[in-house]
Design goal:
Strand content: 15-25%
InterPro entries: UDP_glucos_trans, UDP_glycos_trans_CS
Number of helices: 17
Helix content: 40-55%
Keywords: Glycosyltransferase, Transferase
Protein name: Glycosyltransferase
Number of strands: 18
EC number: 2.4.1.-
Family: Belongs to the UDP-glycosyltransferase family.
Shape: globular
Radius of gyration: 22 Å
CATH architecture of the largest domain: 3-Layer(aba) Sandwich
CATH superfamily of the largest domain: Glycogen Phosphorylase B
CATH class of the largest domain: Alpha Beta
Structural class: alpha/beta
CATH topology of the largest domain: Rossmann fold
Largest sheet: 7 strands, parallel
Number of domains: 2
Strand order of the largest sheet: 3-2-1-4-5-8-9
Length: about 475
C-alpha cells in the first residue's frame, strides 16, 4: 500500500468524515442518517461522504456524496440481512463469503476516497467492519467505531465474553460487575457473535473513539461499563442518538407534485387516541405461515384495533402487495411504511416488535410501550433491557428459553391485553409503564435537540478528531 497522503494543516479546514456502513439495511440506515446530519447541521465544521455498493447507494440520503464500490454479491445477495433471512447453507453464499466480498469491494474504495481528499479526514465505520481501522491507519487518518446496536446489548455481550462463568448455568446473571442485575437464558446468547468477538475487539482497539446510536439518559451507565472493558489505549465512548433513518429514502407517493399523506396515517387519523396496537417485525425478520396465522388469530381475539405491517412480500395470505382495513384493523403487506410517523401518531398506544435496535429507538423516542418478540441476534438482550431494566415492555413469548417454538394465539392476545391495558388488576403497572415510556421519549427528543446531550457528544467527538490533525504524531487518541 502506498504511504499516507499529505493532508492540509489549515485549522479552519472542515473535517471530512467518511462513513462506511455494513451491507445490511438495518446497519446502513443509522450511519447514512448520521452522514446526512454531518453534512446538514455542522455549520461548515464537517463534510461527509459514504462508501458503499450500488444497491445501498440508491438508499443514500439526498445531498450526501457516495463513493460507489463494485460488489460481486455472494449467491446474488446484496443485503446481508436477506442472506440471513433465507438461511443459506452453501459455502459460496455463507456469511464468511459475504464478509470477504464486502471487504474486497469496500476496502479499496475507502482507501481511494481518503487518498483523494486533501484535508483533515476521519473514518466512521460499522463495528463489524474489522478491516476499516487498518485502512484508516495506513492512510494516516483516525478511525471511529460506530455501533448500530445499543450500549446495553454490547456491554452485556462483552461481559459474557470476558467473564463467562464455568460451568455456565441456565439462567445466569450477566457477570463481570455489570451495572444492573440482569438474568439471561443461554438460548438468548448470540454464540455466533461471541465467536467473532476477539476479531472485532482487536479492530476496535485500533480506533480512537467509539460511538453508539443511543443517548445518555437511556444508556450512560452501560456505555461507561463498555468503555471500562475496552482493549488497547484508553478511548472515549460517545452517545449520539437516537439517529433515525431519513424518510426521504422511502420514496413517498406524490400527487400533483406534492406528497400525499400515506393511507396508513390516514387510517390512523380516524382512530381514538392510544387505541391502536402497531405490529411490525422489521424488513427482514420473517415469520412462517403457521406463526402468521397464530399472530392474526391472537390480534383479532384481543379486540383491539391493530395496524399490522409486513414489509416483506408474502405475509398473511401470501399477498405480494396489499393494503386492507376491516373491523379488526389494517394489514399492510409488501411495501415500506413510515414507521417513525406511525409510532408518533396519537392513535398508537403500543408496539409489538422484534426488538431490533432501530425499532426500539423509534418507539422510545415516540414514548410508546412495547410488547417484545425477539427473533435473532442481540434482540433477545434488547428484550431484557426493555422489560427488566427500562420496564417499558411486556413479553409476548411466555417461556424465555423457547426461542424457536411457535408462539400460540393465546400468548399474543394476553400480551396485547397487558400492553394496551386489559383492566384486569394491572392498571397501576400499565400506568407506570406508560409514564416511563413518556419520560424516555421526552429525554430522547431533548438529547437530539440543540444543546442536548447527544449534540454535545457529537460536537466533542468532532473537536477531538480535528485536534488530532493538529498534531504531528500518529492520529490516534
Amino acid at each position: 500500500m502506498s504511504p499516507p497522503a499529505e493532508r492540509s494543516g489549515r485549522p479552519d479546514a472542515p473535517l471530512h468524515l467518511v462513513f462506511v456502513p455494513f451491507l445490511a439495511r438495518s446497519h446502513f440506515a443509522p450511519l447514512a442518517a448520521k452522514a446526512a446530519d454531518a453534512c446538514r447541521q455542522s455549520g461548515g465544521v464537517t463534510t461527509a461522504a459514504i462508501v458503499t455498493t450500488p444497491h445501498f447507494a440508491s438508499l443514500a440520503p439526498p445531498g450526501v456524496p457516495v463513493h460507489v464500490a463494485g460488489f460481486r454479491c455472494p449467491g446474488g445477495h446484496e443485503d446481508f440481512s436477506h442472506l440471513q433471512l433465507q438461511g443459506v447453507d452453501d459455502e459460496a453464499s455463507s456469511a464468511p463469503a459475504f464478509f470477504s466480498a464486502a471487504e474486497a469491494a469496500l476496502a479499496p474504495a475507502l482507501e481511494a476516497a481518503l487518498r483523494d481528499h486533501d484535508g483533515p479526514a476521519a473514518v466512521v465505520s460499522d463495528a463489524v467492519l474489522y478491516w476499516a481501522p487498518r485502512v484508516a491507519r495506513e492512510c494516516g487518518v483516525p478511525h471511529v467505531t460506530f455501533h448500530t446496536i445499543g450500549a446495553f446489548a454490547a456491554a452485556a455481550m462483552v461481559a459474557v465474553h470476558l467473564h463467562r462463568p464455568e460451568p455456565f448455568p441456565d439462567p445466569f446473571d450477566v457477570p463481570g460487575g455489570f451495572p444492573h442485575p440482569v438474568k439471561l437464558r443461554r438460548a438468548q446468547v448470540n454464540e455466533e457473535a461471541l465467536a467473532h468477538f476477539p476479531l472485532f475487539r482487536a479492530a476496535e482497539a485500533e480506533s480512537c473513539a467509539v460511538v453508539f446510536n443511543s443517548f445518555s439518559a437511556l444508556e450512560a451507565n452501560f456505555a461507561a461499563y463498555y468503555q471500562s472493558q475496552l482493549a488497547g489505549r484508553p478511548k472515549k465512548v460517545f452517545l449520539v442518538g437516537p439517529v433515525l433513518a431519513a424518510a426521504a429514502a422511502a420514496s413517498p407517493r406524490a400527487v400533483n407534485g406534492g406528497a400525499e399523506r400515506d393511507p396508513i396515517l390516514q387510517w390512523l387519523d380516524g382512530r381514538p387516541a392510544g387505541s391502536v396496537v402497531y405490529v411490525c417485525f422489521g424488513s427482514t425478520c420473517a415469520l412462517g405461515e403457521s406463526q402468521l396465522r397464530e399472530l392474526a388469530t391472537g390480534l383479532r381475539a384481543s379486540r383491539r384495533p391493530f395496524l399490522w405491517v409486513i414489509p416483506a412480500p408474502g405475509g398473511e395470505g401470501g399477498a405480494a402487495r396489499e393494503e386492507r382495513a376491516s373491523s379488526h384493523g389494517m394489514v399492510v403487506a409488501g411495501r415500506w411504511a413510515p414507521q417513525a410517523e406511525i409510532l408518533a401518531h396519537r392513535a398508537v398506544g403500543g408496539f409489538v416488535t422484534h426488538c431490533g435496535w432501530n425499532s426500539v429507538l423509534e418507539a422510545v423516542r415516540a414514548g410508546v410501550p412495547l410488547a417484545t418478540w425477539p427473533l435473532r441476534a442481540e434482540q433477545f438482550v434488547n428484550e431484557a433491557f426493555l422489560v427488566e431494566v427500562l420496564r417499558v415492555g411486556v413479553r409476548v413469548r411466555e417461556e424465555a428459553d423457547q426461542v424457536e417454538a411457535l408462539v400460540p394465539a393465546g400468548a399474543v392476545t394476553r400480551a396485547v391485553g397487558r400492553l394496551m391495558g386489559n383492566g384486569q388488576g394491572e392498571a397501576e403497572a400499565d400506568a407506570a409503564r406508560r409514564a416511563r415510556a413518556r419520560e424516555l421519549g421526552a429525554a430522547a427528543r431533548a438529547a437530539v435537540a440543540e444543546g442536548g446531550s447527544s449534540c454535545r457528544h457529537w460536537t466533542g467527538l468532532v473537536e477531538e478528531l480535528k485536534a488530532l490533525h493538529g498534531r504531528d504524531s500518529d492520529p490516534q487518541m
